[in-house]
Design brief:
The structure is a single chain. This protein has 266 residues and is α/β, with parallel strands linked by helices. It is 28% helix and 19% strand. The termini are far apart.
Length: 266
C-alpha cells in the first residue's frame, strides 16, 4: 500500500488576526455595489474571505451582505491557523463554510469569483506581496477579482487594490466623514504595494496630494455637509485628469476609485 500523502502546507503565515464587527463594511458595500455584476453573472457564485482572523465575524457579514445580490452565493472563510478554523465551524451553514489554508486557496479545483483579503498582506514584507498577488490571481474565475486591502480597527479609514487575472486594476479609498482631516490621512492604511511609496516622486504620493488640495479648495462647501465637499473634491481631481473610475453615486459615500496606472509604484 503506497504511503499516504500529506496535504500541502498552507501558503502564507499566521497573522495577528485582530478583527471587529462591521470593520469591513466599506469594502463589502463596494463588492455588493459596483462589483456586484461579477457575482450576478458567475457560473459558480463562490467568494472567499481569505485570512478572516481570530473571529469569523467578517466572513459571516460578507455572506449576509452578498446574499442581497445573489441568494445562492457561497462564501468560504479560509484561515491558515487551524484553531481559528475550529472556532469558526459552529457558525457554518448552507452557503457559508470554513477551512484551513492560505493563498493557495484550497477549494478543490473551484475558482472563486471574488477573493477578499483584508489586513493580511500588510503584515508581510514588502518584497513578498507580489508573489501572493500572482498566486491568487492565477486561481480566479473568469472575470474574477482579488481585493487586497487595509483598514483601521473599526473601519473608518479603508483602502484596497483590486486585481483581475491580468493584474492590478484600481485603488479605492473609502473614509468615514468626520474621521479625517485630509484625505491623505488614509496613507497609513494603504495596501502593502503602496504604503511605503507615499513619498515625493511616487504616483500615489502625487494622487494623495491632489486629493488634499482639492479637499482644501472645497472648504467653502463644508456648510452643506462633508458629502458635498467630497463630491466637489472628486469632480475637481477628475477634471484635472486623474482617471477616476466611479462617479457621484460612490463619491457621496466617501469613496473614490482611481485606475491603478495612475498610482502604481514607480
Amino acid at each position: 500500500m503506497p504511503p499516504r500523502q500529506r496535504p500541502p502546507k498552507p501558503l502564507g503565515t499566521i497573522t495577528r488576526g485582530t478583527t471587529n464587527p462591521n470593520r469591513l463594511r466599506r469594502v463589502d458595500r463596494w463588492l455588493a455595489g459596483p462589483q456586484s455584476f461579477r457575482l450576478r453573472r458567475a457560473g459558480d457564485p463562490l467568494v472567499v474571505d481569505l485570512g478572516y482572523g481570530a473571529a469569523p465575524v467578517t466572513a459571516v457579514e460578507l455572506y449576509t451582505r452578498l446574499r442581497t445580490v445573489r441568494d445562492d452565493v457561497e462564501v468560504v472563510g479560509i484561515e491558515i491557523d487551524p484553531a481559528r478554523v475550529a472556532a469558526a465551524k459552529p457558525l457554518a451553514r448552507p452557503g457559508l463554510s470554513f477551512r484551513q489554508g492560505g493563498f493557495e486557496l484550497p477549494l478543490d479545483g473551484r475558482r472563486p469569483v471574488a477573493v477578499r483579503a483584508f489586513n493580511v498582506l500588510r503584515q508581510y514584507r514588502e518584497d513578498e506581496y507580489a508573489a501572493y498577488w500572482d498566486e491568487v490571481r492565477g486561481r480566479l474565475a473568469p472575470d474574477g477579482i482579488f481585493v487586497d486591502g487595509t483598514c483601521d480597527e473599526i473601519g473608518r479609514r479603508s483602502s484596497w487594490a483590486a486585481l483581475d487575472a491580468g493584474g492590478p486594476v484600481s485603488l479605492s479609498i473609502s473614509l468615514r466623514f468626520g474621521a479625517f482631516a485630509l484625505p491623505s490621512d488614509v496613507a497609513e492604511r494603504l495596501p502593502k504595494a503602496l504604503i511605503h511609496r507615499n513619498v515625493e516622486g511616487e504616483r500615489v504620493h502625487a494622487y494623495l496630494r491632489a486629493l488634499d488640495r482639492a479637499w482644501l479648495d472645497a472648504a467653502a462647501l463644508s456648510s452643506f455637509g462633508h458629502g458635498q465637499r467630497w463630491r466637489a473634491m472628486c469632480a475637481s481631481v477628475k477634471a484635472d485628469g486623474w482617471p477616476l473610475l466611479d462617479g457621484p453615486s460612490r463619491w457621496r459615500l466617501g469613496e473614490v476609485t482611481v485606475a491603478w496606472e495612475a498610482v502604481k509604484p514607480g
